[in-house]
């Protein structure tokens, strides 16, 4: 009988603690697409082409530098297969991204924002051009 009461108390107390009535706001998950160098990302009538990495002076992750550096990427934006814009995107390490500058396309249905250029450099590894990719955030 004592065992039965003990199990009942443990079960009830566990359920009472597990019931949390606070409301938590959950941020809408971001959809991130990986766009390889030289490839094109398509959404409806829009195409984003990652054309080139013009420069990459970011400080390697395993080194301490005075200046964090930056990477400059060249992107072309097409609508209905017609070039509407060529854009140089400057990503500076350690700085917040200005979404207005990184917005590649806006419509009533969606917004495409350039989020980052990866991989991040390491001191002992040289990044091959074909290994670069652009992270696109689609809202």
Describe the structure.
There is one protein chain. The chain is of the alpha+beta class and 139 residues long. The chain has a single domain, classed as Tick-borne Encephalitis virus Glycoprotein, domain 1 (Sandwich), CATH 2.60.98. 15% of the residues lie in helices and 43% in strands. The chain is built from two helices and eight strands; from the N terminus they run H-E-E-E-E-E-H-E-E-E. The protein has helices at 2-18, 99-102; strands spanning 31-36, 40-43, 46-56, 70-79, 82-92, 103-106, 111-118, 133-138. It has a four-stranded antiparallel beta sheet with strand order 1-8-7-6. Strands 2-3-4-5 form a four-stranded antiparallel beta sheet, with no helix packed on it. The longest helix is centred in the N-terminal third of the chain and has 17 residues, at 2-18. The model has no long low-confidence stretch (mean pLDDT 85). Keywords: Signal. Residues 1-18 form the signal peptide.
